[in-house]
Amino acid sequence: MEYGVAVDLGATNTRIAAGTAKGEFIARFSAYTNLFEGAEAISLQIVSMIRRLQDEAGLNPRDMVGIGVGAFGPQDPVRGGIVRPANAPYEFIPVRKPLEEAFKIPVEVYNDCVISVMGEKFYGLGRNVDNIVYITISTGIGAGVYVDRRLLLGKDGNAHEIGHIVVDCERRLVCGCGKRGHWEAYCSGRNIPNFVKLIIEAQNRFEDFKSSYLWKASNGSLSGITAKSVYDGAKMGDKLCMDIVESIGVLNAMGVASAINVYDPDLVTLGGAVTLNNVKQVLNPIKQHFKEYIVNREAEIAVTPLSDDIGLYGALAAAFRLHKNEV
Question: What's the average pLDDT block by block, 10 residues per block, for the chain (327 residues)?
Fold first, then answer.
């Protein structure tokens, strides 16, 4: 039986799975990413993991038709690897070449958001849809895009850095990239606490904070607030948390509307840990407000049914090179 191998290469964890072209996973497992034992250690770890998967699942190496990799970035599509990542002290992390040399089969490497929209296209809500935007709201915010059944990549394979569109012309918060006013600086899991602090201070809501669920969850400190505590409080009906989630939702609606205005999709799907752990709290404000900001015909907006496996599904599609048939 022919199978492909999907690799979801994150800065913290690496997940691999073997599966069929129909999107049926045969076996999988994960491990902490070996990020600090040299640039080549990551690809060597992936090789070892694939061989272990084959052994434990009883898979014939000769039946493996390809390997797809969705990886953290930035990407170098020519050399097939990661360039100057923020999470590791290397100029370049090779991925494609070491895997091709080890297994003598085609290897495709894309950034994690691009690979995810491939998963949506072939195994999710995007089947039979020509124009799709997938947006992840997680530690950061990113996107992958199909326009007229064509996967858009950009000159370096890093198109659609949608988290860095401007949603605040007053430029009040600094993004992790060092620039101001970006969507990611307000609504990503890493930066929501900064937005909460800004709201409480700018709106003078310290008394509300002291009577809020956030006070207990943060031990009475603004620096102790987390994205999880904000959404947990909103689910409990806490007034301050609900107000904050609504403010986050309006900015999310601006971001999604910008994607609709730029790419003119039929479908926008949402994923990422912040979305998947708080579906109603993320999706409802977007649906309520996005029409206030669009000029193109509205798109369907939904949460991906592929959950946090969307990257594995996309990597599986890449392993079988399904996207090549779409061009």
Answer: 95 94 95 91 96 96 96 86 85 95 95 94 96 95 94 83 90 87 94 96 93 94 95 97 97 97 97 97 97 96 97 97 70
Residue 132 · residue 126 · CB < 8 Å: yes
Dihedral in degrees, nearest 10, Cα atoms 149, 131, 18, 40: 80
Total Cβ atoms within 10 A of residue 197: 15
Element (H, E) at 14: strand 13-19
Structure tokens belonging to residue 282: 């993320």
**313, amino acid identity:** Y
CA distance 149 to 157: 17
pLDDT for residue 78: 84
- Would you say residue 118 lies in a domain? no
Instruction: Report the CATH number that the domain containing residue 99 is assigned in CATH.
Output: 3.30.420.40
Q: What is the pTM of this model?
A: 0.94
CA distance 18 to 5: 4
Token pair for 153: 């990549």
Indicate if 144 and 277 belong to the same structural domain: yes
Number of compact structural domains in the chain: 2
Q: How many CB atoms lie within 10 A of CB 61?
A: 12
Q: How far apart are the first and last CA of the chain?
A: 27
Same-domain check for residues 24 and 136: no
Q: Give the C-alpha separation, 195 to 167, whole Å.
A: 13
Phi, psi at 66, each rounded to 5° = 180, 165
Are residues 193 and 278 both part of a single domain? yes
223 lies in some domain? yes
Q: So what's the pLDDT on residue 327? A: 45
